[in-house]
Every structure is written in C-alpha cells, then in structure tokens.
C-alpha cells in the first residue's frame, strides 16, 4: 500500500482510489478497502496538504446586547489611499443594539489613538459600556489599553485568532462602509476621508433589517430630517410649529423605551431565523483536552518562499483547554503555550 500510495508511481490518492489501484495490480485481501482508507487517513503529507475545511463546525451563537450602548464592536479598516492629513486607516466602532456607528480616520493605528477614540467617541458621548469586542491586534492587546478598560470597569472580549466572525457586527459594518465609499468615490480614491460624513449619515438614517428601525431613531427617539424633505417638503416640514413640535418630541421620547424593546424582539426573531438556516449545514468537530490537532495555516503565517507549494495545515498541536462555543487553547508538543484562543473551524484531528 505504501508503494502504491507514495512510491514512484504513487499520487497520494484517496482511500477508494488506492484500493482500486492495489486491486488492479493483482492483490486482494478481505479488509482491503478499510485498510486503504485507514492508511490514507494517517498519511502525514496528505493531512498536511489537505484542502482547508470551510464548513462551519459549531452552531451559530448570537451576541445579545442587554441595552443601548452597552456592547460595542471595534475594528480597524484599511489601509486606504493616503488622504488629507496623511490618514490611511479607519477606526470603526458599532453599537450592537442600535447599530450606531462611530468612526475616525487615523494616520497611525497606535494604542494611544485607539484609547483616545474610545474615550472621546464612546465613553463621553454614550456612557461607559458594559463590554467591547475586538480582535487580537497589537493596539488592542496592549497592557496600557487593557488597564484603561479595567479602570473604567469595561470588559474586553477578544475574538479567536483568524476568526473575525466572532465580531460579526463590526465586520458587517466594515463591509457597508467600504462598499459605499467605492460607489461614491469613483476615480477620486484619495477623497475617502471627506466622504465619510455622508456615508455615516446615510447609514444612520437607513432602517436595519434586524431591527426595522434606523440607528438614529433608536438613539435619539425621532427620525432625522434628511435633504429630500427640504427640497420636496414633507408633511412634518410643512406643518411645523414650535409649540406642537415640542409636545411631539416629548411624546416620542416617552415611547422610546417601548420602541427599543420592540426592536429587540424583532432582532431576536431575526437572529433565530439566521441560526436555524446556519445550523442546517454544520459539520461538527469537537476535541478533548490532550487531543492532537492540525491548525489551518492562515495567509499571514504562510512561508512566502514556498509560494503556492506551502502547506494548508501546520502542526501537530495539543489541545490544552477546551473553552465554550468551539474555542480552544493550544500548546506545542514541547509544552509551549500558543497565545490566544483558536476556533474549531481552523482545527482538524491529527492521525498518527
């Protein structure tokens, strides 16, 4: 079997093909197919270069925000073409409840700049949040930045390595901002920073499919006055009176909590529908402490000198701790701990 599978005429074929080639060569025994399948499963080169598994391994776990501006997702978008002020990165934060967006163009993504952004755009405007979700970038994992969070009582939640779906709301907002900028800029790519206010305004005044409300209304209790209501006067524009408007605004604020509760119910129903659809195509993979696993080789960790010939999986590694929701802590066979957590989507069983 070894000669047929990986010898001079071998092609590291699958178990069924290996069994057919052995049979064609004139050899047979009762457990031929099972032995061939087991041999291929334990072949190290086959395991190392096997295609990356894209199917989800765990059920969809929705992130629920308990109240407005309690849970924020933060991420870095870029690099962009250098714009006015030498800015080329965009720091994005989104509230998981209202979908309100705060952004700031930056020339350098440093811990100090991120900390100033959180203080100025989130804390002093919308109060101290319960938690903030971010990836494992150096600007977020810095000790000074996390001390700043601890002093304010903010919980800092990190996503698993190379698993941005853990901060899905921020990733979705990044996609919206990027798409809108592309459509607005045309060939003037260097003007992206000047177009940001219009992109944000358009997003904040657009009803979201998950809540069926605009972020502006869930935040301030009323709908924003948009330019079309000025050019072609709307009913509220034509019949505006300061006295009655004040009463109307107070009435809108009185029912704001009710509107937010309704939006939360609608959002929860939407998440349940998405979960049912997502969970219908699962390929579960679970591991126990002590199991040996392969880890998918991300683009950032591939050996550039190997080019297209680089392996899709590296390892083996040992499961050190099994955490919740498909997250695992890994260690090398020597006992050296691998930093951060890794999602089961990027892991597969090692056969020896």
TrEMBL record:
**Which residue range or ranges hold the Integrase catalytic domain?**
62-223
Biological processes per GO annotation = DNA integration
Q: Name one GO molecular function term.
A: nucleic acid binding
Q: PROSITE patterns in the record, alphabetically?
A: INTEGRASE
Identification of the protein by name: Transposon Ty3-I Gag-Pol polyprotein
Q: Which organism is it from?
A: Cajanus cajan
């Amino acid at each position: 079997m070894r000669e047929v599978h990986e010898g001079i005429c071998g092609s590291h074929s699958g178990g069924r093909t290996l069994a057919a080639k052995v049979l064609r060569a004139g050899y047979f025994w009762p457990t031929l197919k099972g032995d061939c399948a087991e041999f291929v499963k334990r072949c190290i080169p086959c395991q190392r270069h096997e295609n990356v598994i894209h199917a989800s391994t765990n059920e969809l776990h929705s992130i629920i925000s308990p109240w407005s501006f309690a849970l924020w997702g933060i991420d870095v978008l870029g690099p962009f073409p250098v714009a006015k002020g030498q800015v080329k990165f965009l720091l994005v934060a989104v509230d998981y409840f209202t979908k309100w967006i705060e952004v700031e163009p930056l020339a350098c993504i440093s811990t100090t700049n991120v900390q100033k952004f959180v203080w100025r755009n989130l804390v002093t405007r919308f109060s101290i949040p319960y938690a903030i979700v971010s990836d494992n970038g150096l600007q977020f994992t810095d000790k000074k930045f996390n001390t700043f969070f601890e002093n304010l009582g903010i919980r800092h939640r990190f996503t698993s390595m190379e698993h941005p779906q853990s901060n899905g709301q921020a990733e979705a907002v990044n996609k919206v901002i990027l798409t809108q900028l592309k459509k607005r800029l045309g060939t003037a790519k260097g003007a992206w920073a000047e177009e940001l206010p219009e992109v944000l305004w358009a997003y904040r005044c657009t009803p979201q499919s998950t809540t069926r409300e605009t972020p502006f209304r869930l935040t301030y209790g009323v709908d924003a006055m948009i330019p079309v209501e000025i050019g072609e006067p709307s009913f509220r524009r034509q019949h505006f009176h300061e006295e009655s408007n004040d009463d109307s605004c107070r009435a809108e604020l009185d029912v704001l909590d009710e509107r937010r509760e309704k939006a939360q119910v609608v959002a929860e129903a939407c998440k349940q529908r998405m979960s049912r659809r997502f969970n219908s195509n699962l390929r579960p993979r679970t591991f126990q402490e002590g199991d040996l696993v392969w880890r998918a080789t991300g683009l950032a960790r591939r050996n550039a000198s190997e080019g297209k010939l680089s392996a899709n999986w590296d390892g083996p590694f040992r499961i050190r701790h099994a955490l919740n929701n498909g997250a695992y802590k890994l260690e090398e066979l020597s006992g050296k701990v691998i930093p951060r957590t890794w999602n089961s989507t990027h892991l597969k069983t090692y056969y020896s």
